[in-house]
Amino acid sequence: MNEHLQAAKAEPLFNPLSPDFIRNPYPFYERLRTLDPMHQTPLGPYVASRHAEASLVLRDKRFGKDYEDRTVRRYGPKIMEEPVFRSMGHWMLQQDPPDHMRLRGLVVKAFTARRVEDMRPRIQQIVDETLDRIIPQGRMDLIEDFAFRLPVTIICDMLGIPEEHRERFYTNARADGRLLDPVPLSPAEIKAANEGNLAAQGYFQELFELRRRNPGDDLTTQLVQAEEDGSKLTNEELTANIILLFGAGHETTVNLIGNGILALYRNPDQLALLRAKPDLMTNAIEEFLRYDSSVQMTGRTALEDIEDLGGKRIPKGESVLCLLGSANHDPAVYPDRPARLDITRPNVKPLSFGGGIHFCLGAQLARIEAEIAIATLLRRLPNLRLDNVENPEWRPTFVLRGLKSLPASW
């Protein structure tokens, strides 16, 4: 038992909002995989910490989303009257077939390999313009000033959000991410989430009207036209899924860029290797995804009794939380020191983008954005220094793992 595992020994097996867990969940995952890899939490759901069970649950048709039932179990029947939970219930991310495929099919063409590859020049332009503005200052917050701006601009491009509307998206505080955490929200958090959701609905309703009057070559126009064909998309589904696309289109990429840069600076040998061999960047991105995943967990519900999953019986209707960050460190799949960052690691293939029918639509876009952002940063700022490598400020969330800030200078 290593020193990190010993440090975690006195802690509950799964307490994802404790400050120690937020700072570094990986010793706690190691303890889960060792002591109780299919652990039932005090709140009811099971957590799958090994790669084998997590991967199976993501792909097995005996598991689904069953969002409303799962949410009602956690909060009680009145929760679906809250605007934010009602809106989330329409997300394609929360749907089972056939609604899932109907909704996903409306947007999948925007994320084809060809269309995403064609975005490379635009991504490079945004990164260079951002650095042109920042470099003379000699300092920046790598999250707010750099990592955040790129994916927000790209998803604004894709959604057809006019240039004159974008400043609100650059300057408004990021959502706190707690909506997706397995620990229930407080009444104050639900109130704040409702307010944010209603404000987003208000803006996007204005955007829909704009795109009805002035159609463009963008996702919003495409979805507005699907809404007008009422058999394809209702107004509630349109609004909810635009909000989802905006959030998912930037949130995890911000974290991938930030977590990846921090990982490099915490491992100077790997930083030096990547500077010396920039052709390793594509593989390095896969290793960043594995090493410190932007998304640490996703959940499914058993659609029938499961007699044996990692030695446990999972009753129909019970939730299983797949710990992607833990699966990505499972020595059964990554036998060569999984806790070590190794940008030359072969056949990484992390679970960070999920699996099965809900595999992340924007996975390749996120990879390319992170690849261009980090490569350009290292090339243009060879003297970049991070002010606080050892104890940076993490956002107080579990499912979406990312830094609140990362001050840097040169």
CATH topology: Cytochrome p450
Helix amount, in percent? 40-55%
- Superfamily (CATH H level) name: Cytochrome P450
What's the count of strands? 12
Written description of the protein model:
By secondary structure, this protein is an alpha+beta fold. It has helices at residues 3-8, 19-23, 26-35, 51-59, 67-75, 83-88, 99-105, 113-117, 120-134, 142-147, 149-159, 167-171, 187-213, 219-228, 235-266, 268-276, 281-291, 324-327, 363-380, and strands at 38-40, 46-48, 63-64, 139-141, 297-302, 306-309, 312-314, 319-323, 385-386, 393-394, 403-405, 407-409. The chain has a single domain, classed as Cytochrome p450. The chain has 19 helices and twelve strands. It has a five-stranded mixed sheet, sandwiched between helices. The chain has a three-stranded antiparallel sheet with strand order 4-12-9. Helix 9 (120-134) packs across helix 11, helix 9 (120-134) runs parallel beside helix 19 and helix 15 (235-266) crosses helix 17. The mean pLDDT is 93.
